[in-house]
Design a protein that fits this description.
The complex is a heterodimer of chains A (357) and B (393).
Chain A lengths: L1 H13 L4 H23 L7 H8 L5 H35 L12 H15 L6 H7 L1 H25 L3 H24 L3 H11 L8 H20 L1 H8 L2 H6 L4 H23 L5 H13 L4 H23 L10 H18 L1 H5 L3
Helix pairs in contact in A: 2-4, 2-15, 3-4, 4-10, 4-13, 4-14, 4-15, 5-7, 5-8, 5-9, 5-13, 7-8, 7-13, 10-13, 14-15, 14-16, 15-16
Chain B lengths: L13 H13 L27 E6 L2 E7 L9 E8 L13 E4 L4 E3 L2 H9 L6 E4 L8 H8 L4 E2 L8 H7 L3 E4 L4 H12 L4 E3 L8 H5 L2 H7 L3 H25 L5 E4 L6 E4 L5 H8 L3 E2 L10 E4 H8 L4 E3 L7 H7 L7 H4 L3 E3 L20 H12 L13 E2 L2
Parallel strand pairs in B: 3-4, 5-6, 5-8, 6-7, 8-9, 10-12, 10-14, 14-15
Antiparallel strand pairs in B: 1-2, 2-3, 11-13, 15-16
Classes of the chains: A mainly alpha (357), B alpha/beta (393).
Chain lengths: 357, 393
């Protein structure tokens, strides 16, 4: 009997039963809704639940309603989008490079996107004030950010086709982001004070200043990126087993790579353009999803990562608002504090994790 | 809120220290509110009356100067100097390292307030190097830069130390923003350069800030000129201040600054700008707060209070209301935005963004006070034309 139960437990660990993911998805979905509501309820201004519900049903004072509909709702939606986008792009990169340490931040995609933004903010138009650049340039900044992310992604792609050692690729990625930061520093050195300020402010990262049209641009881009990643589920699964295998089952490797790279660049580029570089979500969340679902199958991992990413980002946002105090923390330091322990855990359990790849 | 340690703890950006943070400090310097000491003036009155971080004692043959707590968060630390005329002997009890031979002939300085005060004493020709020459506003000084008389010495961690040594200044005047700057200051000292702290930017009292001209006066042996300049400022400021408080009926509510993304660095109630708004008959929304640095408040938190503001002043570098709306469109729903009561202190701004408010303005607190008073109380000062402020359209 003892032996039997041991085997059964092992079975559960190794091969998820049909019910397990369904239960987990249900649980995560409930958590997601809960955190979304919590994010609306908690902020730097303390509002009573009654006031918030009143605001929803249109019978509270003007200011409370503004706070809820124009501050907290857009911020919660941004957190949701950022969490989804960064986590998915992290998952895709980890699979594509077959590298558990890959992520948009670590491999320099975020810096690439930053460089694109730096070109727009610092490079262009010394006659124009940064405020007016922002006015016309929602799409300009986003597009520059996509391009920057895509260039880095392609570069990493070329490197990893020549060098098989994942640690070397990682180190090259770090070198690349340092080189990009150097270029950005030089640009900063030669730009004027107000532009510099605009750029420095942008690099601090935040979820809370997207409104109206920007929010629409972001949602549209994230939806497009997620759709691309849903299309590439099968390709991702094939990539897990190596490119030769992928080719042998009739996958157009070049095309699938292109789709995956495009999706990743759009997702990372969009979030970096609007929220600044936010670190460690992209690398950490896919691992959380693997720990929770215990499967390498992207049909489960992609929706799992979407849910987990959204939850982690909403939680980070709640922490960064420091409910009950007037002060707020920069959100990227909160995500770093949440993400880094996961990364360390992954490194320490490297052997087990390699099995997935 | 008592320490300087709550700057962005993990992503401290070097540049931020240099530009953004320095300007945040500039608008949020603190200390205790100075009591008006004008009624105490007797023969034994200390020479410095408003500045909290400067002490000057005149003795036979030298003047003894203390620069107290020259950067944020310091307690009970002073830089001590003996100013002795070049032709006089140094008394044996004085440490020669603490001696500055006056009048100084060549200085390098780091802040536009330093250069403005030196220039006001007619000593612009003594400035041989400056950090950030691009940001100088004054025409006279810009000409000096063009003629190569004032050289660019670079910024803190990119300071051109070789050039400084070659310029061979009598002293380098710096402002301290804590340990970040001590690196290059230590290096300069090592090279035998005399580094003098100037703490004018930490003065919370507008007159206290202007009073640092006495320090410059002592260095250039132009004490009398410095005294008369300051006496003029003091008289004008106090006259206007008492006229305002005696005349006004209501105190309109005032909002200050601009958010950085979703954080709004709010100047505390014990800051320089808060004192100006109070003296100009305004009711600053955060006048009851106390902090040694600007307070990073959440945007929604500030918005809650800002809806009741009648006037909005010092809105960053914004030149139009449209720019403010582009930063965050929610700001355009504020009452003072709709009524158009937004005034910014950047009427006199150079091409590269250098703002005379922070340069010449340090010696013109009375003019800034007049500007703010006539904004908050239209009709109080008939026919007054704004000098540093302009309405944003």
């Amino acid at each position: 009997m003892a032996l039997m139960s041991e085997i059964r437990q092992k079975d559960i660990v190794a091969y998820p039963t049909a019910n397990r993911p369904v239960l987990l998805f249900g649980g995560l979905l409930i958590m997601l809704i809960l955190f979304f509501i919590l994010d609306l309820f908690l902020g730097s201004v303390s509002l009573r639940p009654g006031e918030i519900i009143g605001a929803i049903f249109n019978n509270s004072d003007e200011t409370t309603r503004t706070i809820l509909t124009q501050f907290r709702m857009p911020k919660a939606i941004t957190a949701l989008m950022a969490g989804i986008a960064l986590s998915i792009s992290g998952l895709q990169m980890q699979t594509l490079f077959r590298n558990p340490m890959a992520g948009p931040y670590v491999l320099g995609l975020s810096s690439g996107a930053s460089l694109g933004v730096a070109f727009v903010i610092l490079g262009f138009s010394s006659e124009m004030s940064p405020e007016s650049i922002r006015g016309f340039g929602n799409w300009a900044i986003v597009a520059a950010s996509w391009a920057g992310a895509a260039i880095v992604m392609l570069f990493i792609m070329v490197i990893s086709s020549r060098i098989k050692n994942i640690m070397t690729v990682l180190i090259l990625g770090i070198m690349l982001s340092s080189a990009i930061s150097a270029i950005v520093s030089i640009m900063q050195y030669f730009s004027n004070e107000t532009m510099l300020k605009a750029y420095v402010v942008w690099t601090m990262g935040s979820l809370g200043n997207l409104t109206g049209s920007q929010l629409n641009v972001m949602i549209a881009s994230v939806v497009a990126g997620v759709l691309l990643s849903l299309i590439s589920v099968k390709m991702l699964n094939a990539h897990l087993l190596g490119e030769n295998y992928a080719r042998s089952i009739g996958l157009d490797v070049r095309r699938s790579r292109f789709i995956i790279i495009a999706g990743t660049s759009i997702l990372t580029g969009t979030i970096t353009a609007f929220c600044g570089p936010i670190g460690f979500i992209g690398i950490a969340v896919p691992h959380l999803a693997r720990i929770i679902f215990r499967t390498p199958d992207h049909r489960i991992l992609i929706p799992g990562t979407i849910l987990a990413g959204a939850i982690v980002m909403l939680a980070s946002d709640i922490v960064s608002q420091m409910p009950g105090s007037d002060t707020t923390l920069p959100v990227n330091s909160v995500t770093a504090l949440i993400g880094i322990p996961v990364v360390i855990w992954v490194i320490l359990h490297d052997k087990r994790n390699r099995d997935i790849f | 809120m008592k320490t300087t340690d709550h700057r962005n703890p993990f992503f401290v950006i070097q540049v931020l220290n240099r530009f953004v943070f320095a300007s945040v400090i500039l608008i949020s310097c603190t200390g205790n509110t100075a009591k008006s000491p004008s009624d105490l003036k007797t023969a034994e009155t200390p020479i410095v009356s408003y500045a909290k971080r400067l002490k000057i004692e005149n003795s036979d043959g030298y003047s003894h100067i203390f620069v107290l707590n020259p950067w944020q968060g310091l307690r009970d630390l002073a830089q001590e100097w003996y100013l002795i005329r070049s032709d006089e002997e140094i008394p044996s009890f004085i440490d020669t390292l603490k001696v500055i031979r006056v009048p100084v002939k060549k200085v390098v300085c780091m802040s536009t307030t330093h250069i403005a005060m030196i220039s006001a004493l007619g000593e612009a020709g003594s400035v041989v190097g400056f950090s950030g020459t691009r940001f100088i506003f004054s025409d006279t000084l810009v000409q000096c830069v063009r003629r190569g008389e004032i050289r660019e010495v670079g910024y803190e961690d990119n300071l051109n130390k070789e050039l400084i040594v070659k310029l061979d200044p009598d002293l380098v005047m710096v402002y301290g923003i804590g340990s970040e700057s001590s690196g290059y200051i230590g290096k300069l000292r090592e090279m035998g350069v005399k580094v003098v702290y100037n703490a004018d930017y930490l003065e919370n009292n507008p007159l206290g800030k202007a009073e640092w001209i006495r320090f410059m006066g002592a260095l250039f042996c132009k004490e009398e000129l410095a005294d008369s300049i300051f006496a003029g400022i003091e008289k004008e400021y106090n006259k206007l201040k008492s006229y305002i408080s005696a005349t006004i009926v209501e105190r309109p509510k005032v909002l200050l600054g601009l958010p950085f993304r979703d954080t709004w660095y709010i100047s505390p109630g014990n800051s320089y700008i808060s004192a100006l708004v109070g003296d100009a008959g305004g009711d600053y929304l955060w006048k009851d707060t106390e902090s040694s640095v600007s307070m990073p408040l959440g945007l929604e938190n500030v918005y809650m209070k800002a809806v009741s503001a009648d006037y909005w002043l010092n809105a960053g570098s914004a030149g139009t209301r449209g720019e403010i709306a582009a930063i965050d469109e929610r700001l355009s729903q504020l009452e003072c935005f709709k009524t158009g009561n937004i005034f910014n202190n950047n009427k006199r701004t150079g091409k590269e963004g250098g703002n005379d408010y922070w340069e010449g303005g340090s010696l013109n607190p009375h003019i800034i006070l007049r500007d703010i008073a006539s904004i908050l109380h239209p009709g109080l000062l008939e026919g007054n034309e704004l000098i540093y402020y302009r309405r944003l359209n």
